[in-house]
Amino acid sequence: MDFRTTIDHKTFGVRATALLVRGNQIYLARSPAGQYYCIGGAITVGETTEDAVRREVREEVGCDSQVDELAFVVENHFELDGRIFHQIEFHYLVTPLSEPNVSIVEGGSQRQCEWVSFDDLEALDFNPAFLKTALKNWDGQVKHVVNMEGISNER
What we know:
The protein is mainly beta. Helices cover about 10% and strands about 50% of the residues. Strands 1, 2, 3, 4, 5, 6, 7, 8, 9, 10 and 11 form an 11-stranded mixed beta sheet that branches.
């Protein structure tokens, strides 16, 4: 069971994300609308975040991986399709142990995946947006990020 709960149209959950990195590139999935995002998902009850990252990489892109370092802990507040989300996210640097699949099936649709240069991230519709600059400027220390993008102050 995913560690996620919904109260009054607000969803809270814990997510583990794989920052699949090779040199100065990151492996990203692209939605049918052209939005880029990292591989990852909700942890299950009783699962460690590192185990969740390995599981998500295997499930989504079909390869085993080495979880290297925790880079970012993110309090992510956002709105999607009229629903408000609050997620605690653990973003790990991850090394793929073989070449990941070039596409995944998610949400009932096929999505392409590709290696993207850190220098090209700023020009993309990439979520979470803070990674556009934070990833290439990461200094090896765990960073805490509070993301309130897209949340109205009226709530």
